[in-house]
């Protein structure tokens, strides 16, 4: 497996690294850039089409492995594996194209949520869904009826896409956290004998590493909606393709997810529109407290890595539930500490009715 691992990481990373400058020029040509002002306090005009390079690196590495002779790839015993992989590729392509259109035309929240539900529908059709979970109160699993499968899967994908969209507010933050999730999922797949699909999160890891060469603070390019939509959909899909590792993925993404939940509650409490952007995200509040972008990124990475390793080392369902409770307490403490001075700062709003 080592040659395949190195090949996938290298191809995905190299393709992304080579194509990112082209996306910078394309964004400048089309005028798809972020200018400082409102909640955005970066320096200078920054192109925002880097997500296309992440997508291209991921697709390129996947296409290379799928094009290899069957004997060169790890064997599989899952007859649905190719079907699900096809759904992942189609869904990732769909959300990336929609994200590109959003970067260009700035859709309101309604069309964005319709597109996210369509992406979840693609996943459902290709059997990427939440059908069962381990029973925390005894042996065996809990199998959900189909209406609940549809609802849980829909919320899973919408939650992930919007969480990554939330997270993309500090240079290198969303791509770094996505890299941690990819590492945890790849390790889980190798550990549980799913080597035939472990190269998929490795392709994602290589892509975000290649992109970080340009996105690490201070960023020369942003990923834009094309990147955040792609990462959100792909991470949500991989969490289910990896055997519905819902708890493990939630542990890695716990702090960003808690931030989303808290921010929705905060806006509701203060009578603010739920779907307008502002500077009340945790990472913005940390910036306003004087922490550098690099410190914030490294803190998020460390947080996700620690809880991700707990998820990997914890086999029993009840233990993972305890870990999730601990995550809730720690995350809530961090968020309350960051927002304790007052509830009215960081109110700048831009892009009315845009996604969270």
Please tell me about this protein's structure.
- This protein has 13 helices and four strands.
- The protein is an all-alpha fold and 356 residues long.
- It has a domain at 2-245.
- The relative contact order is 0.15.
Write a concise synopsis of the structure shown.
This protein is mostly helical. 67% of the residues lie in helices and 3% in strands. The chain is globular, with a radius of gyration of 19 Å.
> What is the string of SSEs from the N terminus onward?
HEEHHHEEHHHHHHHHH
Main-sheet strand order equals 1-2
Proportion of residues in β-strands: under 5%
Distance between the termini: 41 Å
Radius of gyration, CA atoms, in whole angstroms: 19 Å
Low-confidence stretches: 343-355
Number of helical regions:
13
Mean pLDDT, nearest integer?
A: 88
How would the global form be characterised?
Answer: globular
| Main sheet properties | 2 strands, antiparallel
Structural class: mainly alpha
Say how many strands there are: 4
User: Helix proportion of residues, in percent?
Assistant: 55-70%
Features:
disordered C terminus; 13 helices; 67% helix; globular; two-stranded antiparallel sheet; mainly alpha; 3% strand; 356 residues; two-stranded antiparallel ribbon
Produce the secondary structure layout.
Elements: H1 2-30, E1 33-34, E2 46-47, H2 51-66, H3 81-105, H4 109-125, E3 132-134, E4 141-143, H5 146-167, H6 173-191, H7 195-215, H8 224-241, H9 246-252, H10 254-269, H11 282-288, H12 293-313, H13 317-338
Antiparallel strand pairs: 1-2, 3-4
Helix pairs in contact: 1-2, 1-7, 2-3, 2-7, 2-8, 3-4, 3-8, 4-5, 5-8, 6-7, 6-8, 6-12, 7-8, 9-12, 9-13, 10-13
